[in-house]
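Consortium newsletter contribution from the modelling node. Members have asked for a concrete example of what our holo predictions look like. Here is one, prepared for the iron/sulfur cluster complex that several groups have been discussing at recent meetings.
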Amino acid sequence: MSEHSVFAFSASPRWISCAGSMAYAENTEEGVDGGVYADEGTAAHALAAACLKFKVPAANSIGVTIEAGKRRFEVTEEFADHVQTYVNDVQRRAIGGYLMIEQRVTLEGVEGFDETNYGTSDAIIALPGYGVVEDLKFGMGEKVYAWEPAKDNSPFAFFNHEESSEVVPNYQLMMYALACLADIRLLIDDPKYILIVINQPRLGHISELRVPIAVLERFAVFAADALSKSMLAMGLGAKAVEAKAEHYLNPGEKQCRWCRALARCPAASAKVQKELSADFDTIETDLPAVAVDPKRLAKAMAAVPFVSDWCRAVMAKANELVAAGTAIIGPDGKPYKFVEGKLGDRKWADEKAAEAALTGVLGDNAYQPKKILTASGAAKVLDKKKTAETWKDVFAPLIKRAAGKPMLVMGSDPRAPFSPAAESDEFEELSE
Ligand code: SF4
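And here is the predicted structure:
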């Protein structure tokens, strides 16, 4: 989904949770280059919308170049396959209903919002009794969920009967659901709920949640309150907001992750200092101790993603400022500077001349022995639509993989626990 509203729906997980983030210009300025992945997502959305509108397969566009942002993307077979996965899902859900593609929706008419609160929804479907809002996320990074389990301090949650537990819905999808409600009501009588769907075809991941209309209406009041506080913060500016940090700034993993002010936000760095139990003024000489008590260690583990995001943001900001000529004084009392990093791989500058010289000295030994393609190299060539069956029947059984190393994750992770015993059992079976 895409939009250019200042209070963008896509940024709502940040400004709903931290009103003060809107006081920082870097979060409100337009035309910021979102990077190659954002542009690739835009290209995928354009292709998906065309396929749904004109009812043509994505494969028809293989070889076509799509311009998105500052970049151009060629539609490869793989790209088209993933777009088609999303297109198929939308078409399947839309059977017997009304489908709206890339529809501009606005919150005008919802109390507390106006026409400046708008967005463009990837797919809206009105079906007898309910509506669907489906969001295509084309990235290959982490999985995004339509909901997460509620915590004690979750400001907005509701009881979900399918999960038999309190859940916190994805705020971005809730904003779209709220904004498309008027359109859905024009097409069907008395919808009972909106199904919010996140589709990540490159990760083979779909997450969905039924949101009753009454919950959506309660969310409208909650989001309107957050909007008015954010607008106030934007009007006040960063200095005033920082002076009342406890009221406006609310650091947390979700909201700070995509905040462009993370590196300079005093509330975020205070949270990092608190999590590390360390003061930045003394951290050089007084490294924070790692907790050994399981309870304290569990608390520290929960803070790791937030602290890592903050470290990355600090490094990126320092690089940006030094590149722009700003002096940042390091602990040695001197300004940070750039030096040449690790050299790139050695390559022949003139391959022909090198070949002539090498064969002169080494004869046939100047050439590498013929080597079979690696399994992943072969998969790149053969794991495609035309040869997928051969790949599956002939080549996939010829591949072996070393067992994965144990990885520490949270207990709620859906994967089975790592068991070295099970691994050795399997090994025995293979030997037999
Ligand atoms: S870094 Fe976090 S706490 Fe600071 S403004 Fe951004 S979202 Fe708010």
